[in-house]
Amino acid sequence: MTGAPVVIVGAGPVGVTAALLLARHGVPSLLLERHREVYPLPRAVAADDEARRILQAAGIDVEFTAVARPARGLRLLDARHRVIAEFRRLPYGHHGYPQTSMFDQPELERLLREALTRHPECELRTGAEVTSIKQDEEGGPVQVTYRDADDGQHTTVVAAAVLGCDGAGSRTREAIGAGWEDLHFEEDWTVVDVRTTAPVRGWGGVDQVCDPHHPATFMRIAEDRYRWEFRLPDGAPDLPSLLSPWTDATSTPDFKILRQANYTFRARLADRWRRGRVFLLGDAAHQTPPFIGQGLCTGLRDAHNLTWKLARALLRQGADDRLSATDDRLLDTYESERRPHARRAIRLAVTVGWAMTGGQDRAAALRRAAVGAVCRVPGVTRPATRDLVRPLPPGPLVTHARLAGTHCPQPWVRGDDGTHARLDDVLANSFAVLTAVPLPPTAQALADALDARVTRANATLTTWLRRGGADAVLLRPDRVVLDAIPRHGVDFTATRTWSPLLCTTAT
């Protein structure tokens, strides 16, 4: 590729994670952030085990583990704080981390920015407000103009691609002519962040109070950090009264309110995520009510899905800086894979939101009662939590094999040096083949064409393969199963579908 970097607009967690993932593939990036410093107050506070795995790929898993706190799960409570339903989270999930971890977003952002300094491929410019994004109709590089906050000077850079990680008010979204699809949830809430060592009543997980008059969310973020969220109509009780089910310490000197701010929770999805070489990620592409803690997680999934595809396309583009039709189709799979998943996450959050608030119409009480009754049926809550991890649907990079579209598990394995390591650290950032049998010659040839690492499955992975009816699987760099060799088979199931997208070179 040329020396033009990928320009990332916005240096929040999604933007910086994208830069770090690109760096692992040798792709340089320039991050443009209009603010000088990390925003000091908490916003996102929850990460699932897949998000933790993505942060591992970004290179900060050890540091993040030191500041994260596993959560036990989620409880839906009625207005009298009686349990309607409980969604337990495991301390060790499919991806090798607790299924839910609580954290402080400013701490996460500082860890990510520190990681940037370890990668010369990444450059961060703060106080840089993007004013213009222009691309020609022929699919060439993009011109990005930004204004320096200190001297007002405008600078234009040539970008190999642009990633819009610039939030709900995204200028990048405007530049590609994208609008919002309304998914029909909009409510005003107050968020209260507190630091205290005084007693606070909790069970180690998240409380969501399903009260049509005063719905609320409570969670413990860190050892001495707590968050409450309330939908407050006119004439709502004062803050001590609202917090009284959890603590009596609001008047003590030790009880410090870090932030009390009003937010509008919305459910929206951008109607397009890409135009040419410009892409939308995170809140620029979707807005999710916070009730299931998936806002940031969904953005991190965007970055993990897109960056390996973009790196592959840029590293083999032609001498004229044009992408081939093949690479254009490869990049189209970003939106076709990610948009349906984001929609599911938003709809699940809206469902929980309706369970909490029930709306304001005459059927509200009936809906809340129905939700409570259904959630008490044994086994119902488990499928509800699995909705977020359903396989990607079949497509150009996902075959019809049984395991295709799922993530492989991440157990501890023996590394090249004989020490124990997480699977992804052994596989690095490449394609990989996990196999329980000697690899057939045709499959080995395909692995070689992809420069895929071939790894013999350990007991945990062999069990997973057998349950999926496979002798081996081909993993994408984001650890999604692309294809599988069925039991006693001799080759992957649909090579002709995906190999033209991945095994060709620029023409």
Automatic annotation (TrEMBL):
Keywords: Oxidoreductase
Domain FAD-binding: 5-347
InterPro entries xref list: FAD-bd, FAD/NAD-bd_sf, PheA/TfdB_FAD_monoxygenase
Coiled-coil residue spans: none
UniProt key word Iron: no
Pfam families (alphabetical): FAD_binding_3
Highest taxon of source: Bacteria
SUPFAM superfamilies from the UniProt entry: FAD/NAD(P)-binding domain
Gene3D superfamilies, sorted: 3.30.70.2450, 3.40.30.120, FAD/NAD(P)-binding domain (3.50.50.60)
Oxidoreductase listed as a keyword: yes
PANTHER family, per database record: 3-(3-HYDROXY-PHENYL)PROPIONATE/3-HYDROXYCINNAMIC ACID HYDROXYLASE (PTHR43476), FAD-BINDING MONOOXYGENASE (PTHR43476:SF3)
Protein name: Bifunctional 3-(3-hydroxy-phenyl)propionate/3-hydroxycinnamic acid hydroxylase
Species, as recorded: Streptomyces flavalbus
